[in-house]
Specification:
The complex is a heterodimer of chains A (520) and B (112). Chain A has 520 residues and is mostly helical. Chain A contains 16 helices and no strands. In chain B, the strands form two sheets. A four-stranded antiparallel beta sheet of chain B has the order 2-5-1-6, with helices on one face. Classes of the chains: A mainly alpha (520), B alpha+beta (112). At the A-B interface, helix 12 of A face strand 2 and strand 4 of B.
């Protein structure tokens, strides 16, 4: 997320004449008014030069902080809203009998993340410390800090994030929603069979310890940053971390009942609501316009954030199309769930390089991500890893790919700092980062899952899994008015598996136009 | 009295209902069912995993009739529900022991 100076100065727009003139005119007028008494005295003075007062300087500085803070908070709100997207997407791709459970997981994970990141996560990630973790200002944002002071003027213990001139709470909230995103990625991998309490506890631990430690390495001034590894908005920090934790979770949990047949057959378990998937995907796409450009944590002159908006969008579009074509060619039809995964894969892949690559590169990155995600879905099924929503293919695979793309596609005009030691060195640093975060997160998350399993249990009872977690875990039914289980399930799948359809309740018996409901 | 149970394609429901109404047959009970006869299913892919769709959505119409009207009703339903393609459905005709109207307690033909 560190800005390179060359990126900041790239491409300044010039079409702002009227505004600049008006501003200048206002300034001159204000200065003239301020000077009136002086003019009255010094009559010989032909023309007084406009004076830039200290007060004006302070106001300008405040305005800049204000605009940057507004930017950070608005983009953070967009990223916060991505939790809606995840909830809609995941529940749509899973069965209706688990809808409440999936929505609850996605909901509560943000609440848990908020608390744990506040209590200790922020401090571990951004506190001054050593190359591996923060050691100062660990608890409850308690360390000394004089944000929004930046650079040399900064005095405090969160030095690694002193490059952005916004108040501490703006920095905190922005980073918090990123942590929440990493945690919610896990929920997709473990859906439809994990105990709610176990997921809750794991999420708390993930955001309190795992996410901040690896985050410290890259964004907190740790050893990977020192090696010259770059990750603008978090393909590694957020997405691959969520992916690794989801991978180990899926491994320890095992597949859903009925997903894999004894003869090695892969059984489809279709999602129950494609409209929900669609909405979730678009909400995520929208939210990413906060995720990537917001990581500048400053408006600057607008050029960089506009550039990032564009690369982000192009990667999403190209990812959608790449997955669409790949699915069409490999599987015969353009499966909508693959297109949606492709969109998200493109977004994940562009997350690391978004500020440092050209728009045409972002299209290539997106396209390749779309191809990779379809391959990933097929691969994970083949190795008997049950990922109900494709989260591993989207976030883990493309989190790594996007990080590597920084090295492959970094543009010299946009990323001079990154390429200071040559492209080869950059690629090497990216690979070290991918591997380092991978090894640590894999091992640590696996340990956490095993401990949680030993203490709390991890998987629901088989009968509950068949009946649905909504009632078993929450005592709720998602759709009590509708018949949610259709007769005539998929061959080879567990009883109660429904055929994929947009809505279960639409039928020829629905009200005809002009007809009143209710019995006569 | 006879009970007609007609399994038809869902989109034919309106046609059958109107055709029966023209014959003076107003009452019916309709349920959504799934089934197959000789109409084979087809294979689909969901995210790369193959599955066979055997059961197809159908509508079951149940009608109670006096014996004298049963044959005509069968003809009417058949004509209205036919598309000529596989999967048009079947009609089952069975005898009924008794019919009771719950509101009034009438029995037999008066209750139809």
């Amino acid at each position: 997320m560190k800005l390179s100076i060359s990126a900041q100065t790239a491409g300044c727009s010039s079409g702002r004449g009227p505004t600049r003139t008006t501003w200048l005119g206002a300034g001159v007028t204000a200065a003239a008014v301020a000077l009136l008494p002086a003019l009255a005295v010094a009559e010989e003075a032909a023309e007084a030069a406009p004076v830039f007062t200290a007060e004006m300087a302070t106001q300008l500085a405040n305005l800049t902080v204000g605009i940057d803070t507004l930017w950070v908070l608005v983009t953070a709100a967009l990223v916060f809203f991505m939790n809606t997207g995840f909830g809609l997407l995941e529940s749509g791709l899973c069965r209706s009998k688990n809808a409440v459970n999936i929505l609850s997981k996605n909901f509560v994970v943000f609440a848990a993340s908020s608390i744990s990141f506040y209590l200790i996560g922020w401090g571990l990630m951004f506190g001054d410390g050593n190359g591996f973790l923060g050691l100062q200002g660990l608890f409850a944002l308690g360390g000394p800090d004089n944000s929004p002071a930046t650079g040399e003027a900064y005095e405090g213990v969160y030095t690694s994030i002193n490059w952005t001139g916004v108040p501490l709470y703006a920095k905190f909230f922005f980073q918090l929603v990123f942590a929440g995103t990493a945690a919610t990625i896990v929920s997709g991998c473990v859906a439809e069979r994990i105990k709610f309490v176990s997921f809750l506890v794991f999420s708390f631990l993930l955001v309190a310890f795992l996410y901040p430690i690896t985050g410290h390495w890259i964004w907190g001034g740790g050893w990977l940053a020192g090696l010259g590894m770059w990750d603008f908005a978090g393909s590694t920090v957020v997405h691959s971390v969520g992916g690794w934790a989801g991978l180990t979770g899926a491994m320890v949990l095992g597949a859903r009942k009925g997903k894999f047949g004894k003869d090695g057959r892969v059984n489809p378990i279709p999602g129950h609501n494609m409209t929900s998937v669609f909405m979730g995907c678009f909400v995520l796409w929208l939210g990413w316009f906060g995720f990537n450009p917001g990581s500048t944590m400053g408006v600057g002159d607008g050029a960089l954030i506009a550039h990032i908006f564009t690369t982000t969008n192009m990667a999403a579009a190209a990812g959608s199309l790449g997955a669409l074509v790949t699915a069409w060619l490999l599987l015969g039809k353009p499966d909508y769930t693959m297109i949606a995964n492709g969109c998200l894969a493109g977004l994940v892949a562009i997350t690391a390089p978004c500020a440092w690559v050209t728009v045409s590169s972002s299209i290539i990155i997106g396209l390749s991500a779309g191809v990779l995600v379809v391959a990933g879905v097929l691969f994970f099924d083949r190795v008997k890893l049950d990922d109900p929503v494709g989260a591993l293919s989207v976030h883990l695979v493309n989190g790594m790919w996007g990080t590597l793309c920084v090295g492959l596609f970094a543009n010299p005009d946009l990323a001079a700092d990154l390429l200071a030691n040559g492209r080869g060195a950059l690629i090497q640093s990216q690979l070290i980062g991918i591997a380092g975060v991978g090894v640590f997160t894999f091992a640590a998350s696996l340990t956490f899952w095993i401990v949680v399993k030993a203490v709390l249990g991890l998987r629901v009872e088989e009968e509950e899994e068949v009946d649905g977690l909504d009632y078993g875990e929450h005592g709720n039914h998602a759709y009590p008015d509708f018949q949610t289980v259709t007769v005539g399930g998929i061959a080879g799948a567990a009883p109660g598996v429904g055929h994929a359809s947009a809505y279960q309740a639409v039928s020829p018996l629905a009200l005809q136009p002009g007809q009143r409901g209710g019995a006569a | 009295m006879k009970k007609l149970e007609a399994i038809i394609k869902p989109f034919k429901l309106d046609d059958v209902k109107e055709a029966l109404a023209k014959e003076g047959i107003q009452g019916m009970t309709v349920t959504e069912v799934k089934g197959f006869g000789r109409q084979k299913g087809h294979t689909e892919l969901y995210r790369g995993a193959e599955y066979v769709v055997d059961f197809l959505p159908k509508i079951r119409i149940e009608i109670l009739l006096e014996d004298s009207k049963a044959q005509r009703a069968v003809e009417v339903i058949t004509a209205a529900a036919r598309t000529g393609r596989i999967g048009d459905g079947k009609i089952f005709v069975s005898p009924v022991d008794d019919v009771i109207r719950i509101r009034t307690g009438e029995r037999g033909d008066e209750a139809i």
